[in-house]
Write a structure and sequence with these properties.
Layout (H helix, E strand, L loop, with lengths): L1 E6 L20 E2 L20 E2 L39 E3 L10 E4 L9 H14 L4 E5 L3 H13 L2 E6 L5 H9 L3 E4 L4 H17 L4 E4 L7 H7 L1 H9 L5 E5 L4 H15 L8 E8 L16 H14 L2 E6 H15 L5 H16 L7 E5 L7 H9 L10 H13 L6 H7 L6 H13 L3 E3 L9 E3 L1 H13 L3
Parallel strand pairs: 5-13, 6-7, 7-8, 10-11, 10-13, 11-12
Antiparallel strand pairs: 1-6, 1-9, 2-3, 4-5, 14-15
Bound molecules: zinc ion.
Amino acid sequence: MYIIIVSNYPRGSKKKVKYSVRWKNPPVCSQCNTSHDLPELWCEKCNGINTIQAIQGRMRSKMNPSTLWDFSDFFPSFSHHISLQEGLTPVVSVKSIPALTGLKLKLEFRNPTGSFRDRAAALILSEALARKKTNIISVSTGSFSISIAAYAASAGIKSTSIVPQNIELSRIEQMKLYGSEVIIKGDNLEKTLAESQNYIQELQAKSLYSNFYTPTPEKNLLTIEGQKTIGLEIALEYPEIENIIIPRGSGSLLYSIYRGLQDAKKSGWIETIPHLFGVALKKTDDSHLAESLDIQRDPRWSDMIKEVVKETGGKEMNITGERMVKEALAVAKYEGLLIEPASASVIVASQILHEEIPLNMEKSMAILTGSGLNSMNVFATQLREKKKVVWGLSPATAKFEILRIIAEGKAHHGYGIWQSTGKKNTIQSIYQHLKNLEEDKLIRNDNQKGKRAFFSLTGRGMEIYVKMREIIDL
Ligand SMILES: [Zn+2]
């Protein structure tokens, strides 16, 4: 996931931007010792990691947080605070999964947009405002872009989300609902990233935007600083916790929680840092089922996570996507919690760990990161035992539906087809689709001579219709 923040200062402007974020402890490169001002996670000079020394905040007894910003002892100082009441997520105990009874579950999907990313978005947008940015561009497939879109709306900052073609429709709609302009470019995240650079160059060429920089969430220290509040909250409310089980994509969440626990230890809230268990996706044909964990790994993150896990006496684990989906369905059915498959990785991991160690469930906590509402396609394919389920009427499915109506002889002209679709779309859009289908030679008008059109499928149209039937189940 990547974020590019763009300012509105015209090219060549001499106007200096006053940077108004002040660090408690500045980020310092752990290799070359360079001190940094911008929230970059990786050192520009040597590629080493920039770390922030553990911060000492108020005593545990003096803390009574009612918003995320009540942890600001541990944040840099911002001139503006953006909040949608993220953080301070509830904790429930497992009741109905026998082997895991008593395991504590931190419900991160109860954040404003349904994921822990909101904690990071609150800080990133506060920084964007502090730096007088008016535009933010995010490049991502996942919940990060939805978070950024929502917080940008709250901050009054224009957001643009550049996403790959294969992203779930429900995610795109969420970004749009928050007023984000969604641009679909490239068929995977790498290509989308390359395309997004062209997009920015176009903006520059038009002299519309300059003075932009490109800190990605996985490279931005504010991501870590926002997400570390999960660790702070656990240490504050449940200092007895000995094990924390965390889903692991890149590794930034696990590292963030570790950072929060470091601050909590420094502040005297806990004596030791709990064992941290990182649960990653085992690469199989089913990897797409847990898409938020199915990402390319930066080897620098891998080294760091290995170190942190080892230091805390935890363990790294790998689980298949298929097992995650199965467990997510069980958690919904038996515990009443609808979580995305990637979140269910921690439930499977807890079961495995319990057989191995065993875990003291009362002193163990698993992090449920994201809402199942963002993964309805995955669940639908599983429940219906289909390869793919298509929701709603995207232009592609609308055209397919028209082909189906004609192929099955239900209607052969615009008005009849419109009736057959249940009048879900406007009649004008049906005529537009018919025009496009005719231009693409998938249908032909058999009644040319002035009378009402009578459409039938061409040979090619029939071929495509049959092929689509194979992959789409309607
Ligand atoms: Zn360095």
